[in-house]
Specification:
The chain is an alpha+beta fold. It has one domain: PPM-type phosphatase domain (Phosphatase 2c, domain 1, 4-Layer Sandwich), CATH 3.60.40. 31% of the residues lie in helices and 28% in strands. It has 7 helices and 11 strands. The strands form 2 sheets. It has a 6-stranded antiparallel beta sheet with strand order 2-3-4-5-8-11, with helices on one face. Helix 1 packs antiparallel against helix 2. The protein starts with 6 loop residues before the first strand and ends with a strand. The model has no long low-confidence stretch (mean pLDDT 90).
């Protein structure tokens, strides 16, 4: 995928099996020259989650060229939908209930970027010293929070905090949520699996991103912090920095969609 950009992108990805799991079912995509990044988290406890996450990343890595952001996002959406059907068919062939994965991906073009996601892998924006979660988790606890039945702190320790409500491969109909953002000079985007967000508080994530301007150093520091805090799941991190080649802009959220 190629698209003219007014930004210079630097990025880094890292993933680790963690301190508890026997295999890494996460997969990352880091293609700054093409303006596309992704994290996929194979569904824990299900058969061949690593197959699911790798299938998604491989499909996104070979997307056809588009002339604008909307076309590129639509190509990505179609590719993920194709993998969704593939995983359903593979689960039937293997006689298992589900083979699935979360997905969070970011695509950049000109002065905008779009995120597509399903599940609880996240997209954050770090701007001017402030960290903001741009994606919203597709999970049981997020539903309870939205209804005011539990607090954010209670959600972190809720028995269902790992139960997601959307995933690639989980159902014949896949609803990918989309968010589009205006890019600003110096913006740092973070894609991660819940192996990071469940282990490291947002204020600590912000502190590490602030302390490490280089994406590779920031990604390594975040991964090490998740392992230090327990590493109870696979951990995947992609850190992306935008440098404006022409002038600044202010962030605007444009037409979030489901």
């Amino acid at each position: 995928m190629t698209c003219v950009s007014q930004f210079r992108w630097t990025s880094a990805a890292c993933t680790d099996v963690g301190r508890v799991r026997e295999r890494n079912e996460d997969a990352c995509l880091d293609m700054p020259d093409q303006g596309i990044w992704a994290v996929a988290d194979g569904m824990g406890g299900h058969a061949v989650g690593d197959f699911a996450s790798r299938a998604i990343v491989q499909a996104l890595a070979t997307l056809p060229d588009g002339s604008n952001l909307d076309e590129n996002v639509e190509n990505a959406r179609l590719a993920i939908q194709t993998v969704n059907q593939l995983l359903i068919e593979e689960a039937l062939r293997m006689k298992v209930r589900v083979i699935g994965s979360t997905i969070v991906m970011l695509m950049a073009c000109e002065r905008q970027c779009s995120c597509l996601w399903a599940g609880d892998s996240r997209l954050y924006l770090f701007r001017d010293g402030h960290l903001k979660q741009l994606s919203r988790d597709h999970s049981q606890v997020e539903r309870l929070k939205a209804r005011g039945l539990i607090t954010a702190e209670e959600a972190r320790h809720h028995p269902a905090h790992n139960t997601i409500t959307r995933a690639v491969g989980a159902a014949s109909t896949l609803d990918l949520e989309r968010l589009t953002v205006e890019i600003g000079d110096g913006d740092v985007f973070l894609l991660c699996s819940d192996g990071l967000s469940n282990e490291v508080e947002d204020d600590k994530i912000a502190a590490l991103l602030s302390a490490h301007a280089d994406p590779a150093a920031a990604a390594d520091a975040l991964l090490r912090q998740a392992l230090h805090n327990g590493g109870r799941d696979n951990v995947s991190v992609v850190v992306i920095r935008a440098e404006d080649l022409g002038g600044g802009s202010d962030m605007t959220l444009l037409n979030p969609e489901v």
